[in-house]
Amino acid sequence: MKYKLGDFVRFVDEKMEGFITRIIDEGMIGVTGEDDFEIQVLASKVTMVHGYEPAGTKTTITEEVQIQQGEFKKKGIYIGVTADTKANSVVHFNLINDTSYQLLASLTTEKQIFRGEYAGIVASKSAVKVYSAQLADLQLWPKFIFNILFYTTQNVELPASLSVKEKFKAKDFSGSKKLLPVLNEQGWLIQLDEPDLVINAQQLKESFYKPAEEKVVLEKPVRETDLHIEKLRDDHQFLNSAEILKIQLDYFNKALDSAIVHQLHDVVFIHGAGNGVLRHEIQKTLSKHPKVQTFMDALKEKFGYGATRVVLK
C-alpha cells in the first residue's frame, strides 16, 4: 500500500478529492471529502495530490536560535489534535516542540502490526503533522508509540530519551479546546513530557487542616436551561450516549437545585424531542421530587415537544 492515513488524494475518474481516512485492505481505501462523507474506493482509482498542507502543520527546519542560558526551556512537548479546515470529520495529530531543544522524533502505531508513521527533526518552537484519522473511529485508533531524542548546541545537559506509549480515549478530549502553542489555533492538547513533580511542603501541611466542608453557593439559574449536549460540552463528539445522558442529567439536577434554593416560581428545561430518553428521565425525577408542584410540556409554539416547564412549591 503506497498510501497512508491523512494523504490528500484526487479521484482519477471523477472531480472529487479528499483525505484517506481508512485503509480497508491492500487494494481498498476510504476517502473523506469536504462533505464529511467517507467513500470506499479502489486505491488504483485515486492519485496523490502533492503540496497540500493543512493550516498550521507546515514545518520549516531552521538553524537553532542562540538562547540565553536563563531562557532555556526544557519542557513543552505536546500532541496537538486539530480538526481539518476542509473536512471536519478528519483530525490531525501535530507533534509540537515548544522547548528550546531540537528533537529527533519518530511515531510508530501498533494495531496487530507495527507501522512507522513519521520520522524527522522537529526544530525548537515548531510543529509537524505526524498522523491523521477519522474522528468517528476514535475507539479504533491504534496505540501511538513516540520516541524522542534531544539535541542542543547550548551548554545544557541533555535529558534521557523520551519514550511514550499512548492509547487515546474519549477522556483525553473531555476538556474544552484551547489555543495550542506554536500552532496558534484551537485544538486539544496532550503533554508528552510531563513536568517534574514538585512537592510544596507548606501546601501539603495546609491540606491536612482544611475545613471539613465549605458552604456551597449555587448561582441563580436562568429561567430557561438548554440541556442539548453541544451547549454543555465542547468535546461532545467524543462521548458515547451513556456519557452524554449522565452529563445532561447532572446539569439538570444542579439547575433544579439552584432554582429551588433561589425560590423561583417555575423553570423550563429544553431537552429536545430526540428519542425521548432524556425527557423520560427528567420527568421521572420531577414526579418524585418533594419541591415540585407540577410539570408539563412547555409552550409548544416555541419549543414543540422538546421542553418541560416545572412549577415549584
Structure description:
The protein is an alpha+beta fold and 313 residues long. 15% of the residues lie in helices and 35% in strands. The strands form 4 sheets. Strands 4-3-2-1-5 form a 5-stranded antiparallel sheet, with no helix packed on it. The protein is globular, with a radius of gyration of 25 Å. The N and C termini lie far apart (68 Å).
Question: Notable features of this structure?
Answer:
5 helices, 18 strands, about 325 residues, five-stranded antiparallel β-sheet, about 15% helix, alpha+beta, globular, about 35% strand
Please summarize what this structure is.
It is built from five helices and 18 strands. It has 313 residues and is of the alpha+beta class.
Briefly note the structural class of the backbone.
Answer: alpha+beta
List the uncertain runs.
55-69
Strand portion: 35-45%
List the strand order in the largest sheet: 4-3-2-1-5
Could you spell the SSE succession in H and E letters?
EEEEEEEEEEEEEEHEHHEHEHE
Mean pLDDT: 81
- What is the 3D form? globular
Q: How many E-type strands?
A: 18
Radius of gyration: 25 Å
Distance between the termini: 68 Å
Amount of helix: 10-25%
**Main sheet record:** 5 strands, antiparallel
The number of distinct helices, counting runs of at least 4 residues, comes to: 5
